[in-house]
Amino acid sequence: MRIAVVGPKVYFENHYPEGWETNPDILCIDVDEEHYGWLNIVHNFRPDVTLFYRPELYPAEYVSRIPGFRIAFLSEPVPNFWGGQLVETDETRLRLLVYSRLAWDCFHWKVFYDPSKKDTVHKIGFPIDEFHELPINIRWFHPIASGRKRWDVTFVGKSTHHRNRRLDFLRSSPFRFLWIAHGVSGRELATVFKQSKVVLNIHADGEGAMEPRIYLAAACGAIVLTERLSAPPRLFQERIFELNEWSNDSISPYMRDASNLRFDQTSHRSLSVLRFIESRFKRSKTMISPLEVI
């Protein structure tokens, strides 16, 4: 089976299939949304299945020419749905505007990354076929043998007013704290998480969501402390904890308990990118689709 993956490397390198660097049957394309020359490379590769990250970026006339089974994986947040109403923020309004460009009819299978947003997705009217967490390269993101961790507390994410306010207490904390705003992905990011006792998840705008960093960190054996999520985590439930209070005292107990937690191998395997692609391609063989698989 020949696999192509389309998506900006800086954002999706963590979600490229295991072994993509050396496997001649896997092609990963780092795209530029201002230039579509990558189309010829994918087309000439003649993939059996192509996974499109950020599918809303690509015009229909280009996507439809890619041969094989085409999967759209939507990874941008949508508003929460509380009390029968959509709770919008500036972040989610921008994402909905970008989603309006998506060429739905060009894809055989459409996946949304956050299973907790089913009500919102149905309310908006997105024709989603499946809800599934972003798969990750488990060959890179996995625990290391026990040993002294370099960082007590780590956060990876851009600076926002909400995050600055939430994390301000760490300025005077006794913890070895690392904050990376941007520019780290792939093996380098996996190394950071493997060397962290606790990884924090702070929402950009304070609204509950299921950010990919949660599972990336948990897959590396870190404890994840997060603000309220849009729903309880489906995977790594014994390693991901919601906090209501953010202080040195509230974080300290989780550092002491880190080495005693069991690592969930089943959750880890279920996040494999190759496993995700292969299983959906097999399913396509029996799927009734209005699109022709070229």
User: What share of residues are in beta strands?
Assistant: 15-25%
**CATH topology (level 3) name of the largest domain:** Rossmann fold
Overall average residue pLDDT? 89
Question: What is the helix fraction of residues, given as a range?
Answer: 25-40%
Order of helix and strand elements from N to C terminus = EHEHEHEEEHEHEEHEHEHEEHHH
Radius of gyration: 20 Å
CATH first level of the largest domain: Alpha Beta
Separation, N- and C-terminal Cα atoms:
15 Å
- Give me the side-by-side strand order of the main sheet: 2-1-3-4-7-8
Main sheet overview = 6 strands, parallel
Please give the count of helices.
11
Low-confidence stretches: none
Beta-strand segment tally: 13
Estimate nothing, just give the exact number of structural domains: 2
Shape: globular
SSE-based structural type: alpha/beta
Tell me what the CATH architecture of the largest domain is: 3-Layer(aba) Sandwich
Descriptive tags:
alpha/beta; Spore protein YkvP/CgeB glycosyl transferase-like domain-containing protein; 29% helix; 11 helices; 2 domains
What does this structure look like?
It holds the Pfam family Glyco_trans_1_2. InterPro entries: YkvP/CgeB_Glyco_trans-like (IPR055259). Residues 182-238 form the Spore protein YkvP/CgeB glycosyl transferase-like domain. This is Spore protein YkvP/CgeB glycosyl transferase-like domain-containing protein. This protein is α/β, with parallel strands linked by helices and 294 residues long. The protein has two domains: 3-135 and 272-284, Rossmann fold (3-Layer(aba) Sandwich); 151-269, Glycogen Phosphorylase B (Rossmann fold, 3-Layer(aba) Sandwich), CATH 3.40.50.2000. Helices cover 29% and strands 18% of the residues. The chain is built from eleven helices and 13 strands. A six-stranded parallel β-sheet has the order 2-1-3-4-7-8, with helices on both faces. The protein has a five-stranded parallel β-sheet with strand order 10-9-11-12-13, sandwiched between helices. Strands 5-6 form a two-stranded antiparallel sheet. The model has no long low-confidence stretch (mean pLDDT 89).
